[in-house]
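step=encode ok
step=design start
structure_in=
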């Protein structure tokens, strides 16, 4: 499926006309690298009917106009969406994790156990083994903060 076809499906799903979409897109004032100008309404219609290729620099603006993630312009199947979200979670910053927690009203309790599908740990597993198993999914800033705090605790304990 071509990107323009996917956009047209999304327009239909969102009950948006091509004119409404073109207005939303133009209101975001995207600039084409080749001309430095915002595409005209006529050019946007040509993108939507596939007669000219959509410029890569427009993808973020198109996604914003449709109020979707950029990834949704390229895929519709669940397997690809799952890969996208797994990658997003692996590379998320602390700020992005906070946004996800707030969006889904997630709560964390030290005594609670988050159990994912196909997980190999159980309630009887040690906390250390759970930590080691989950470390690959941690964002780098979290790991850096964790190492810093553990060093501080180690230093404190050594002084006692």
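sequence_out=
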């Amino acid at each position: 499926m071509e990107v323009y076809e996917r956009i047209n499906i999304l327009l239909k799903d969102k009950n948006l006309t091509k004119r409404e979409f073109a207005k939303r897109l133009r209101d975001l004032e995207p600039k084409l690298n080749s001309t430095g100008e915002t595409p005209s309404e006529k050019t946007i219609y040509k993108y939507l009917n596939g007669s000219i290729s959509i410029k890569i620099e427009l993808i973020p603006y198109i996604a914003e106009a449709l109020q979707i993630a950029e990834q949704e312009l390229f895929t519709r199947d669940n397997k690809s969406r799952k890969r996208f979200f797994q990658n997003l979670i692996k590379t998320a910053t602390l700020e992005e994790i906070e946004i996800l927690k707030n969006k889904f009203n997630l709560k964390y309790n030290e005594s609670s156990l988050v159990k994912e599908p196909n997980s190999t740990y159980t309630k009887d597993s040690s906390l250390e083994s759970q930590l080691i198993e989950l470390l690959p999914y941690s964002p780098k800033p979290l790991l850096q903060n964790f190492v810093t705090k553990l060093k501080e605790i180690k230093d404190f304990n050594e002084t006692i």
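step=design ok
step=annotate ok -> The two ends are 65 Å apart (CA to CA).
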